[in-house]
Amino acid sequence: MILGADVGATRTKLAVVEPETLQLQERMVMPTPAGTSAHDFMLWLRESIEGLVRQHRVECVGIGIAGFVTYEGVLVHSPNMPALQQLPLQEWLSAELALPVVVENDANAAAWAEHRAGAARGISDALYITLGTGVGGALILGGKLWRGAHGGAGEFGHMVVDITASGQTGMAPFRIGVLEEYVGQAALLRCAASVVRRYPASVLASRPITVESLADAYAAGDEAARECLTWVAWILGLGIVSAVALLDVELIVLGGGLVEAFPGMLSVVEATVRQRALPAVAYHVQLRRAHFGTWAGALGAALLAWERSTSQGKPDA
Q1: Could you give the CA distance from residue 175 to residue 233 in angstroms, rounded to a whole number?
Q2: Kindly report the CA angle at 178 between 135 and 283, in degrees rounded to 5?
Q3: Confidence at 315, pLDDT banded by 50, 70, 90
Q4: Contact 161, 239 (CB under 8 A)
Q5: What is the C-alpha to C-alpha distance for residues 234 and 102, in angstroms, rounded to an integer?
Q6: Cβ-Cβ contacts under 8 Å for 155 (sequence gap 6 or more)
Q7: Nearest to 286 by CA among 241, 251, 311
Q8: Three-state SS for 262?
Q9: pTM over the 0.85 mark
Q10: CA-closest candidate to residue 84, choices 185, 169, 8, 186
């Protein structure tokens, strides 16, 4: 068996995977202690994993984590978990578990799962976008993960989409005007809180606004929810327009918790791309929902660990 973990700023998913069939034998979801110190986080991660490792006789472990990760598995920086910087997670966890361990950016891991066995299977050039607490991205180019010169390629959420933005007081300059500030979970909830003021009859006017309540309202046809989701999907579509103009990929795969909660977003995103992208690109590019949904990251991390541990080379490099 192999084990994959998808560590986000809000939740962590663990999956025990049968490597030949890719069947998920056991799944666990738990809150991520994003506000703890780096030391406490590392201890928590080890303790969360080691029980499953012993129980299922796991042969290798893959960790997908939100942030900038080097090929050597050093977490350089995690924008939504700022205490985690320069952590040699791969080396440390491998020594602690006495197993091969691979640590990878979470979007890269999810993209690899979709490329190997999901929505992007058989596609040489694809952009994977994940929408959750933050907005991540990953590139498959020529059938391989494309990390760029320093390992940071594919950070779709950090594309600047608002050149007039001045940012909030104390906001890091690299966050001002970027896509994640308009499309991520926090941005979605801010949008809903603002829009609902114009719709006193909305069900959201009399209940706390959460992703779950917003999804319920959207599914029920609530006008405030639909206006908010249409706005967010439009901005996301414009970001994709810029990305495909630069990359000319065959396929865009949309995954993550917000895509699962609001499947209707895809039609608005696609309409925006068809309308605003360069005609030659707009005609050819495909858009699909992720096949593995919110479990793509854990599965992809497990696959990367398995492939690297059974190969002398770097099959995904």
Answers
A1: 20
A2: 70
A3: low
A4: yes
A5: 36
A6: 136, 137
A7: 251
A8: coil
A9: yes
A10: 8
248 CB-near residues (< 8 Å, 6+ apart)? 125, 281
Average pLDDT, the chain: 90
DSSP run (H or E) holding 254: strand 251-255
Residues 238-250 have pLDDT tens digits of 999 999 999 999 9
Average pLDDT on 79-83 reads: 76
Task: Dump pLDDT digits (tens) for 99-122.
Answer: 999 999 999 999 999 999 999 999
Maximum Cα interatomic distance, the chain, rounded to a whole number of Å: 62
Tokens read off for 36:
């703890």
Residue 151: is it exposed, middle or buried by C-beta count within 10 angstroms (0-12/13-18/19+)? middle
| Mean pLDDT for the stretch of residues 283-293 | 92
DSSP for residue 248: -
Q: In terms of pLDDT, which residue wins out, 315 or 82?
A: 82
Q: Phi and psi for 280 in degrees, rounded to 5?
A: -65, -35
DSSP strand pairing (23-31 vs 11-18): antiparallel
| CATH topology (fold) of 123-290 | Nucleotidyltransferase; domain 5 (3.30.420)
Secondary structure of residue 312 in the 3-state scheme: coil
Boundaries of every domain in the chain: 2-111+294-309, 123-290
d(CA 135, CA 168): 19
Report the CATH number of the 2-111+294-309 domain: 3.30.420.40
Contact yes or no for 116/163 (Cβ under 8 A): no
